[in-house]
Amino acid sequence: MIVSKEKYEKSLRVVDQLLVGRSLDSLSDDEKVQLEFHTDIVEAYEKEYYPIELPSLVDVIKLRMFEMNLKQKDLANLLEVSATLISEYLKGRRDITLDVAKKIHKKLDIDADIILQ
What we know:
434 Repressor (Amino-terminal Domain), elongated, mainly alpha, 7 helices, 68% helix, 2 domains
């Protein structure tokens, strides 16, 4: 779907008007159809002009380390690799092997799409 900026802005206003101070349950069937139509336009435009890229694997690993309160040494033990290797991965000096990628997915619960990018 090709969407102009004008159509996008109009759809944003319609969505805003439909939702400000209201819940989805309070919308009539016609309003729900309008909402779906206009949100599809907004989504198509934003996907084209404001794409959101996946974060890098290193950034996600660092975030997960923070969330799990892990130091590099702890992560090395968890993934059964050396602390030196973890340091190399986190600095981007070395590519993560398939075996380690599998462990990252399983033990850190990181989405496979992020690992494979």
